[in-house]
Fold this protein.
Amino acid sequence: MTAQHSTVSEVMTRDVVTVRPDTSFKEITSVLSSHGISAVPVADEHGAPMGLVSEADLLGKQVEQPEKYGGQAAPPRWPHERAKARAEHAAGLMTSPVATAHADWSVAQAAREMNRHHVKRLVVVDETDHIIGIVSRPDLLRVFLRPDEEIREEIHDEVLTAILRLSGQEVQVQVHDGVVTLRGEVEKRSTAEIAERLAKGVDGVVTVRPMIDYAIDDRAVEGRPQPGTAHRTPLR
């Protein structure tokens, strides 16, 4: 058994509301309001994503509106912003192409994809490119609500015991507010470093404080194990 990140399928919203390219501005506004959401995917006739309309896309309309009683409006700066501000249907309002994810992705992979595209949400599609869900930043952050004791048990049972074959006497695990402290002594430096790296990959871990001594530095520059007094992996 190995430690794994939660998958997108475990945290995504499955009951996804969609609109069509010809859905009107006012209808989109109504959909967002009635469902308490801040964005809606635009799907074609086959259920594949074409784009995403968010509150930000709709606000351009308000920006271009003149002030009451004839005041001058401040028009959007860029051509694509002006086009959105004047659009009447989803096809002209949406941001496209839309960033997507797959249900079997890890939460970490989805977070990296959001960061790469500078977006707040990903549309989840299946192998046929049909929309099956949507995952947002708050969904990904839910892993950090995981209880400390649950995190500690996974690191102890799966990382240290099942993977590294270490006993509770060799390395002890403490977790407080998602911060993991590893204390103990192992034979090799590489074992200490692997323990730290695997612990960081456990869902809910904020950071790892490695305090593991080792007897042999098997990562020596010369490529040969260097026996000697116990060393401690540095705090990072």
Observations:
- Residues 148-163 form the longest helix (16 residues).
- The domain at 146-232 is CATH 3.30.1340.30 (Histidine-containing Protein; Chain: A;).
- DSSP finds nine helices and nine strands in the chain.
